[in-house]
Structures are given as C-alpha cells and as structure tokens.
Amino acid sequence: MSTPPPARAVRDLTGMLVHAAHVMNTRLSAALAEVDSSPRAHCVLLHAMEGEQTQARLAEIAGLDKTTMVVTVDELEREGLAERHPSSTDRRARIIQVTPAGAEKVRRGAEIVDRVHAEVLDFLPEGERQAFVGALTRLTEGELARAAESDKPVRRRRTTQK
After folding, report:
1. What is the chain's Cα-based Rg?
2. Helix or strand holding residue 97 (H, E)
3. How far is 30 from 76, CA to CA, in rounded Å?
C-alpha cells in the first residue's frame, strides 16, 4: 500500500538545482571533449591563472578533495598544461603554474564554456535571462555562498572520467 507524499508548499529547489548542475556538467564535459579537456581540468587551470594559487587553495575553489586534486594536477602536469613549483611564502605548499599550452587550453575552453552557457540561457525568453543570472548570482554570493556547518557534512558526488 502506498501513501502519497505530503503536499509541498515550496518547489523542491534542491532537486531542481542538483538536476540542473548535473545536466550542465554533462553538457560541459561533452563540449570540452572537443579540446580534450574536462570541467574539472578547466576549472583548476582557469583559477591557477589568476595568480599564485596553492594546490590546496585551488582544491577549495574547485570543490575538490585533496586526493582528487593531486590526481588532477598529476594529469595536467603529464599533459604539459601545468607545473608544480614551491611557494615563495610557504616551503610546504606547492603553487600550480599554468604553462603556455595550458593557457591556450583555457582560452579555447572558455570559448566552449561561454557557448554552452549561452545555449542554455537561450532557452529563456530574452527578458528573463539577466534576471535569472542576477538572482542566481545573489543566491550563490549570499545565502548559498558557504555550506552550513553540520555534524554530517554532505559529500560531493564523485564523477568518473573517461
């Protein structure tokens, strides 16, 4: 015997955002394959170009655990896209420096990311696009900027790479 779920007073915002994030990441993965890249590699390289970023800081920015970050930087080094260098301020830390080949990969990847984002936004009426981006920006820079403290933190779902 099944029991109907309780009526919802508010739309399932979590479900919609999780689904949208999954679909966007899938689209970006497929599109970035055009330049033999991935959303994770693109994110790490892009933020490494912003200045002297430690591997730990880049992991935080990209939302990666330490192990995944080490594997990611190992791959980027193997492909000649990034190099690890000692930090000038902390000899225990490693700075991730983007090579010229990595910078070119980021440039090409940014064009692809912009194209995918524009394609998705094109599904909204022109008058709603800026409002949607503005509202999402306010949420992610405000109420949703940081995860809540919890005794049972939610782990981010692992993604598999080809």
Report:
1. 19
2. strand 94-98
3. 19
CA dist list (Å): 123 to 97, 116, 126, 128, 145? 37, 12, 9, 10, 26
The three-point CA angle 60-66-71 to 5° equals: 115
What residue type is assigned to position 98 of the chain? V
Low-confidence ranges of the chain (pLDDT < 70): 155-162
The pLDDT tens digits for 5-23 are: 888 889 999 999 999 999 9
How far is Cα 92 from Cα 71, in angstroms, rounded to an integer? Answer: 18
Count other C-beta atoms under 10 Å from residue 142's C-beta. 8
Which residues are CB-neighbours of 93 under 8 A, at least 6 positions away? 54, 55, 56, 86, 87
Cα–Cα distance, 110 to 99 (Å, whole number):
16
Residue (of 118, 119, 76) closest to 98 by Cα position:
76
